Amino acid sequence: MDRTQVVIVGSGFGALAAAKKLGKAGTPFVLISETTEHLFQPLLYQVATGVISPGEIAPSVRAILAKYPSGDVRLGRVVDVDPDAHELVYESAGVCHTIGYETLIAATGARQAYFGHDEFAEVTYALKTVEDADRLRRQIVRCFEEAHTTTDPERRRNLLHFIVIGAGPTGVELAGQIKELAGRYFAESLRDITADDVTVTLVEGASEALPVFGGKLSKYTFDSLEKAGVEVVLGTMVTDIDESGATLSSPDNGFEKRLTAETIIWSAGIQANDFAAVLADRTGCETGRGGRLLVDEDLTVGRYDDVYAVGDMASLHDFPAQSPFAMQGGRHVAAIINGKRDVGTPFSYKDKGSMAIINRFRAITRVGKVELTGLIAWFLWLAVHLVYLVGFRNRYIAVMSWCGSFLGHRRPHFYYAQDPDSAKVERDGEKEHVAA
Q1: Which residue from 24, 55, 155, 436 puts its CA 20 to 30 A from 234's CA?
Q2: Are 4 and 90 within 8 A, CB to CB?
Q3: pLDDT grade for 436, boundaries at 50, 70 and 90
């Protein structure tokens, strides 16, 4: 059985922040991840809308950590842990491996939450992985391409209607970008489709868009989306979804409405990945909303002082499930392991502000009591996200892609090839329609 000083599970912001600090100190560690890439999740919506390519936001974890000889990166899925024996079991290429550790850092992130309606996952598009973004991108292009050729007015309306559920940052960004696609990209290349032909409906259960901001920033977001042509429906829940649309209802006034569309995007909430439940069971740690681990003040898990959880899978004092919380948590744990901080030192979160992009040249930013909107906030958003992108090449290509997409009309990463099987189904359906 392998043994190492530290095992890190995951490859997100928290995992890499801890790995870099351990690597700089020469502390031996093994990082185990289900993917070989570090995903910059906040920019997934730009992959889905053709602004940038997956490679620009998903660099290799091994390349990032290559300069730290004390580290070892392994591809695998962690399936069990024995905190008393200090052993962890992971599966790789169908084979189970056991590795011993002195300290465990869990940072496996979160996945989409459907609030008890897991069946919605089968008929909606999520945006948590590169595969999700690629699937959504192909769907968006397919809808525009087929709307360009269909002779059925009702089907054309459904192809060009996009329903986005959840007015958090991802939902707002997607709604704004899809509407921009209609007016700035497809209007140039498909001349029979105008921005007015494309309907984007953004549905939110709360009474504000971007409710985490509230106040004038939420009001600015709502006004900006409405001005761009996005229909924003607030205080409304989604009660049912199927392959042809969604049913909306408002408990306050008894309102109920059926919307038909071929594309329904779900971006309403997160829940911890499966390893959080395993860790909770093995350590006796309580869980909160979305299965997130209710960690102790020093980010330890349950009754174990050598097991830590950071990032989206952990919950402490309602700190936001965002990359700064994950990175600061990873560095805090690494500092304790490296002896730079005393064991049991409480984690102190430094709020560096929040921001969200709405559409081209419009964004919102809050840093302390300072609130910014519009072009200044938009440029600040670009600058901050460039800093977080890993690697000079990624930053350079992202800048070029942003210039082409935001200043020009290009979407260099839109491409689509029709599936022969789906084409056959469509032809058969048209024949049946003609026969009827």
Answers
A1: 155
A2: no
A3: very low
Closest CA to 212 of 153, 270, 294, 138: 270
Beta bridge mates, 133: none
Tens digits of residue pLDDT in 289-317: 999 999 999 999 999 999 999 999 999 99
- Is residue 226 part of the annotated active site? The answer reads no
Which tens digit of pLDDT belongs to each residue from 137-189? 999 999 998 999 999 999 999 999 999 999 999 999 999 999 988 887 787 77
pLDDT in tens, 47-59: 998 888 888 888 8
Of the residues 87, 173, 180, 204, only one is catalytic, namely 173
Report the C-alpha gap between 49 and 69 in whole angstroms.
38
The pair of structure tokens assigned to 202 is 């953004």
Tokens 């699937």: give the residue.
135
